[in-house]
Each structure stands twice: as structure tokens, then as C-alpha cells.
Write a structure and sequence with these properties.
This protein is mainly alpha-helical and about 110 residues long. The protein has a domain of about 70 residues. It has a two-stranded antiparallel sheet. A hairpin with a 2-residue loop joins strand 1 and strand 2. Helix 1 runs antiparallel to helix 2. The protein is flat, with a radius of gyration of 25 Å.
């Protein structure tokens, strides 16, 4: 008997939108919200519109390029792995052997 239910075959796949993977979609959305707020603040503070528009368009272009570059360079989990690897110490110094001597006696 044939099943009437459809199977979702993309369960284990990462979320993608126009080439952006996983958390980079959120980074782009947060950046766009900040640009919208910056535009509103500058417009309310009566800065000339001929200054605001090129500034916001330039920052928006830079945001898109930077986000897409991170997405293509690191992939889904690569950025968090890159940041975690940078936080690892290069070497560990021990000033005393007492820690290891106590471990051996137990």
C-alpha cells in the first residue's frame, strides 16, 4: 500500500538562501537592520540626503560582499571553528610538577 505522506529529504541539509549558508543569513539580516536604523537616525538628525544615500548604499554593498565572502570561505560551521582555533593557546607552561605528582599518587 502506498503511503500518502511525503518524506522531507532535506532534513539534514543546512539552510541556504541565495548562496548564503546557515548563520550568515542572520548576519546579513542584522546588518541590514543596523543600516536601516542608521539611515533613520541620520535622516532625523537632518543630515543632507546626498550624504546619507551614498554612505548607506556603500555600507550595504560592503556588508553584502563581506557576508558572501565569509559564507563562501568558511561554509556552514567553518567560521566558528576558525574563531575557536584562534583562541587555543600555542603552548602551556607549567611552573611546578606538583599537579602531576598528585595525580600519580591517587
Amino acid at each position: 500500500m502506498a503511503s500518502i505522506y511525503q518524506i522531507n529529504k532535506g532534513v539534514a541539509k543546512p539552510i541556504m538562501f541565495k548562496g548564503l549558508k546557515a548563520q550568515y543569513i542572520a548576519y546579513l539580516a542584522i546588518g541590514l537592520v543596523f543600516l536601516l536604523i542608521a539611515f533613520a537616525v541620520l535622516y532625523i538628525s537632518r543630515v543632507n540626503l546626498f550624504i546619507i544615500l551614498p554612505l548607506i548604499i556603500g555600507l550595504g554593498t560592503a556588508l553584502f560582499m563581506f557576508t558572501f565572502r565569509l559564507s563562501h570561505r568558511f561554509g556552514e560551521h567553518g567560521l566558528s571553528k576558525f574563531i575557536a582555533k584562534r583562541q587555543l593557546p600555542t603552548h602551556i607552561k607549567f611552573r611546578s610538577r606538583q599537579l602531576f605528582l598528585k595525580l600519580k599518587s591517587k
